[in-house]
Design goal:
Length: 250
């Protein structure tokens, strides 16, 4: 079972540092962990942030959109991001002043190996997004960094080859006995997981995979288009997880 966090098991709010997993979902997590061969949280958050938010042992954590992967037994997989790519990312981050971004209604979250430019709290979100698209995104591409849009945010990554889907593959490669998978997500980066799982089914490395799209007002079209099942918001995730824990066999 692969779970995104923000917008999937935790409501999205203005300030990411204040996010909390829905208490009813948190109560189900130990049971899910004990039932499934693997439960993994795959998030855009930094791994340490993700671990602190979920606070559950015996599950896997993949932070920074798959760059930082920790297995359920606590082992950390080596990073596949090159030193040159990280240097480029850090140099890019230093170019943007906090005051300059704030004047546009934007703030930058530096997550060590990736960046997120947020504009959810902007007085004029359309103008803030336009600034990101016309200034930040072209500069990132010129620095040979990867640009991805998120929910009221712009993501800057060091490598196109590393994403949530590559994290799911890395975790499943460690446990080849797993033959079925289910993935919950609410954003376009979660579709990378769904594509990776479908490729594994096509390659007969999985027997079955199910993609659950968690829909909301801000859901990009790709979530509805590429998911097999749709649920409405975090409450929909709760209902489905509750039904899974109610069965004797997942």
């Amino acid at each position: 079972m692969f779970l995104d966090v923000d917008g999937t098991v935790a409501p999205i709010i203005e300030h990411p540092e204040d996010v909390q997993i829905l208490p009813q979902i948190r109560a189900l997590l130990p049971d899910l962990r004990d039932r499934y061969g693997l439960v993994a949280f795959i998030s855009g958050r930094a791994r340490d942030d993700l671990r602190g938010l979920v606070a559950l042992e015996g599950v896997a954590y993949a932070g920074n959109h798959g760059i930082e992967v920790q297995l359920a037994d606590g082992r950390i997989l080596p990073s596949r991001v090159s030193d040159d790519a990280l240097k480029a990312l850090h140099a890019f981050a230093q170019y943007w002043s906090r005051q300059g971004l704030a004047s546009r209604g934007v703030w930058m979250e530096h997550k060590g190996v990736s960046l997120t430019f947020h504009y959810r709290t902007a007085d004029n979100p359309h103008a803030a997004l336009r600034h990101l698209e016309q200034s930040v995104a072209p500069a990132a591409r010129a620095a040979e960094l990867v640009v991805a849009t998120g929910r009221m945010s712009l993501e800057i990554h060091p490598s196109a080859a590393i994403h949530k889907g590559s994290a799911a593959n890395a975790l499943l490669d460690e446990q080849p006995q797993i033959r079925q998978a289910i993935s919950f997500g609410d954003d376009r980066t979660d579709a990378d997981v769904w594509r990776a799982l479908r490729t594994r089914v096509a390659d007969r490395r999985l027997d079955r995979a199910v993609a659950v799209g968690v829909l909301g007002e801000e859901s990009p079209d790709v979530v509805r288009a590429q998911s097999d099942i749709h649920v409405q918001g975090v409450e929909g995730t709760l209902q489905m997880l509750g039904s899974l824990t109610a069965h004797q066999t997942p």
